[in-house]
Automatic annotation (TrEMBL):
The keyword S-adenosyl-L-methionine does not apply. It catalyses: adenylyl-molybdopterin + molybdate = Mo-molybdopterin + AMP + H(+). Belongs to the MoeA family. Residues 185-320 form the MoaB/Mog domain. Its EC number is 2.10.1.1. Pfam families: MoCF_biosynth, MoeA_C, MoeA_N. Signal peptide: none annotated. It is an enzyme of class 2 (transferase). Its cofactor is Mg(2+). This is Molybdopterin molybdenumtransferase.
Amino acid sequence: MTVRPTVTEAVDWAAARRIAAAAAPRPAAERVGLADALGRTLAAPLVTALDLPHYASSAMDGWAVRGPAPWRLIGPAGAPGAGEPGLGIGIGEAQRIVTGGVVPRGADAVLRAEAGRVDRGTLEPVGEVGLRDVREGRHIRLGGSEARAGDRLLEAGTPLTPPRIALAAATGADVIEVVRRPRVAVVLTGDEVVESGVPGPGRVRDSFRVALPAALRALGAEVVGVARVPDDAAATRAAMTSADADLVVSTGGTGRSDADHVRAALADLGADLLVPSVAIRPGGPTLLARIADRLVLGLPGNPLAAMLGLLAVGGPLLHAWSGAGPADAAAGQVRAGTALDGGSGVTALVPAVLGPDGSAVPTGYHGAGMLRGLAGAEVVLVVPPDGVGAGDAVTTLRLPWAG
Ligand SMILES: Nc1nc2c(c(=O)[nH]1)N[C@H]1C(S)=C(S)[C@@H](COP(=O)(O)OP(=O)(O)OC[C@H]3O[C@@H](n4cnc5c(N)ncnc54)[C@H](O)[C@@H]3O)O[C@H]1N2
Ligand code: MOO
């Protein structure tokens, strides 16, 4: 059996993340309807086709008025519609208007319905409120007061949130140019893994088929398939290359035993090993490789190790792929609520919760095969090899599923 080096080849935390971010291809663009734009990243600036608002409109239900009170009511007696641009009113005239209605040409204020009184076709303001509406020219939203046609309202690289989608709709857009998501195929290894029910002795219930695609989607991927491969060299090689995907994410089989085939498959395929392993714990065996124009993210089989390997290396890769700015935008800082040991030469990734004072305390249950600690965590602490003292600032990884 060949013994291959392990510790010496591990890439440190910061370098692994830099390499992963740099491995992402230049973001490509596609057009999607506004209904499908949530969470996507703008590939081109949002430029408004219209002045916003695109006509002077009323901010209140009431009457458009011109000149000093009293005013003679003109126009239809019933409820007015949106109105027609170009129609005007003369000095001493008033016309009913609803919120959002076109303000007639010449009007210099809108008198709110509750601040006016009509008597036999003549309108008068009621009280100081009504006088002020008129004196101050109130309740008219001027055309172009929010933006002028041609203004850039959002820059390329902006993630689309509900208010940004609403803004795009207000500009008259029906489709929007966003960054194309990477197409990701998930490959699960492990002959001992069962996918449903209670596992028997020596069997392990699968943790990845549902959860890993969900985590990948939260990181901005389009998951195109999930396949199981037997612990077999040829099957592993085929799984790395057969799916129509930009990125293959595998679980398990990253070790060097006879039952592990991911590294050998990549070597046989002539893959370029960009990150052979990472100096983190758990998640150390995580690897990133390139085969032609496809990337392979190999996650360890242990569930916590896999999830943290995904955040550590897949996080910056997918962030860069989304075109949404610097990779470390996904990282923050908190105060350590307790002293934390480093990982003796490696960076420790520690699931934690935030106390009432905002400081972070580990959740416990941090074994590489455990999920309980991460399931209860609000953040993951990035504890450098030398550890941190209680009260020290410590970097956090935001959990992409935490919203
Ligand atoms: N001699 C050494 N042994 C190990 C080392 C080492 O450096 N020297 N590293 C350890 C570390 S760290 C990790 S992490 C694991 C990585 O192992 P693999 O990526 O090869 O994963 P497997 O051996 O296939 O599986 C490990 C573990 O995870 C369970 N597993 C696999 N798939 C699933 C799944 N879909 N759902 C739930 N659990 C799964 C599997 O049954 C094993 O228990 O290697 C250490 N060993
Ligand atoms: O990556 Mo392994 O992380 O410790 O089980």
